[in-house]
Amino acid sequence: MATITPARRLGGGRLAAMLGEPDAARPAYAWLSDSIRQLIANGRIIHGTALPSERQLMGTLGLSRTTVSRAYAELRDRGYATAHVGAGTIARVPGGPVGGGAEPLPLGGFGPRGGTSGAYDDVGEPTAVDLTCAAPAAPVGLADVYQEALDELPAYINGMGYFPLGVPALRAAIAADYTRRGVPTDAEQILVTAGALAGVAAAARLLLKPGAVALAESPTYPNSVTSLRHHGVRVASVPIGADGTDVDAVAGALRSSGARVMLCLPDFHNPVGTLASDEVRERWAAELRRAGATGIVDETCARLWLDEEPDVRPMAAFSHDVVTIGSASKSHWGGLRLGWIRAPHALVGGLARMRMTLDLGAPVLDQLVLARLMERGSDLAPETRVRLRAARDLVLGRAAELLPGWRARRPAGGLSLWFELPRPASTALAAAAGRRGVLLAPGSMFAVEDHGLEHWMRVPFAQPEHELEWALPRIADAWGEIAG
């Protein structure tokens, strides 16, 4: 085979720490092979990484040459490694990293490309990085949870398989989580959906007739606005500043627009990153009641705290009328494609009918997986939180070195940074970065009006650190081009 230079190498000591204690009940080669395979499958060993040499691993783990050789052979046979002259054994994802897999935005030409968040060459070096998306990789051990759910699946196979409102175990787990967070909830108030956007769409169909007005802060998550407009709703905007929601401005916009619904993102706002205090939430809910408007509260980012768990309650604690939308895509894994609606009892029936105009239920296996994950906790996995915190600080630090004049608050949670640029050139910057293999979403994509916000750029930090390290100098180079 041809001699190659791998993009990164994994030392024997580091691999030993990742492997943990051997399983004495299994043959050593099988334990070693399966453990490394799980690390690759869970993204902890990156595609294209050179594994320790057999001699090095023998010394580190105290295993025989035969044991290590057989383990590596098993990895190669199952497609999780290849052998290269001069480089040794290279970890790989069978078939290569799958194209796409990122969070789609209505960007008309931007969007997922290449691997999980970018494209790679044969040895795992990035050739493109997608920074239009902000979603973490799956937590370690997710494949094992799928196996547990498969063991549970036979109990459901005898029936027809339709659960339009959601599998009972998952509805109960979500309700219990709200109750733990200070909002007493029963399972009848929970409707499982195929992602958060399906929840927004169902709520909009129930609460708004075509031609009605909804209010949204600008900037905001663009797919929610697109969903409302698809239903024929007109969307008015109220600015959100760097300090977060201006309740007085919201009150004025509710009066002047006549909006009957408002999209609310109180938790680590996407893209601004702000977190509303309990005082703001209480005043916000009061203004919605005063205007006769219903809040559709997007809690997709509610559990994405990075520094310390915030002492705030859900918006539903301050109003019995709000409709809350949740999602597993950020806190657990986007591939589950599951969300939920928490609604007042008076709206549950109508929401259920609207929900069934979209589809007849989410996949049963994925719901069983999420039920198990929710029972273990609704937060990010601890190792995911540690990685995201480090990545956030990496981007802030490197931006301070490479991009003088760029300013961003250090958010206490969420998955992205909202940079203020020294000049209004966000769209031009996105184009220049794209020519260098870095996909960015210009600030205008987050504007309710679909234009403006040229002084702003969202930069996610959910991607692997080596991708961020690859992308940031290229963004700086692009900025140098357009800034002269």
UniProtKB/TrEMBL annotation:
InterPro entries: Aminotransferase_I/II_large, HTH_trans_reg/aminotransferase, PyrdxlP-dep_Trfase, PyrdxlP-dep_Trfase_major, Tscrpt_reg_HTH_GntR, WH-like_DNA-bd_sf, WH_DNA-bd_sf
Gene3D superfamilies on file: Type I PLP-dependent aspartate aminotransferase-like (Major domain), Winged helix-like DNA-binding domain superfamily/Winged helix DNA-binding domain
UniProt entry keywords in alphabetical sequence: Aminotransferase, DNA-binding, Pyridoxal phosphate, Transcription, Transcription regulation, Transferase
GO MF term set: transaminase activity
PROSITE patterns named among the record's database cross-references: HTH_GNTR
SUPFAM superfamilies named in the record: PLP-dependent transferases (SSF53383), Winged helix' DNA-binding domain (SSF46785)
Pfam families: Aminotran_1_2 (PF00155), GntR (PF00392)
Superkingdom of the source species: Bacteria
SMART domains: HTH_GNTR
DNA-binding in keyword set: yes
Domain HTH gntR-type residue range list: 26-94
Family: In the C-terminal section; belongs to the class-I pyridoxal-phosphate-dependent aminotransferase family.
Name the UniProt record assigns to this protein: PLP-dependent aminotransferase family protein
